[in-house]
Amino acid sequence: xxxxxxxxxxxxxxxxxxxxxxxxxxxxxxxxxxxxxxxxxxxxxxxxxxxxxxxxxxxxxxxxxxxxxxxxxxxxxxxxxxxxxxxxxxxxxxxxxxxxxxxxxxxxxxxxxxxxxxxxxxxxxxxxxxxxxxxxxxxxxxx
Length: 143
Hints:
Shape: globular
Distance between the termini: 10 Å
Structural class: alpha/beta
Helix content: 25-40%
Mean pLDDT: 94
CATH architecture: 3-Layer(aba) Sandwich
Largest sheet: 6 strands, parallel
Oligomer: single chain
Order of helices and strands: EHEHEHEHEEH
CATH class: Alpha Beta
């Protein structure tokens, strides 16, 4: 059984909905899943899993949230060498540049982005978006 830690930051609740749906999908496929708001876990604790899924919405000029998520991610980043990480988040404007930059940071640190790209959903996940998140969870559980 794979162990999955899902760690997220949310302002409006959209990224938490995504995290919850990813968790539901992974659990349904047999994974041992723990879900955390980024303020509830340290980078060292996050690494106590076979797989990581990190969620953060686009903020400001398409950047990661700066007061909690970015400092957490910056500390975690050197530990991602050789690890595969799923990335996800919601956005309300722009073209997803924050996700492109985030993916580049993971790969530059020697990590691999799960399935080659993060999952982004515009605004609040609708039924299709929630299904995409559940499918991502199932794929993570089977990886």
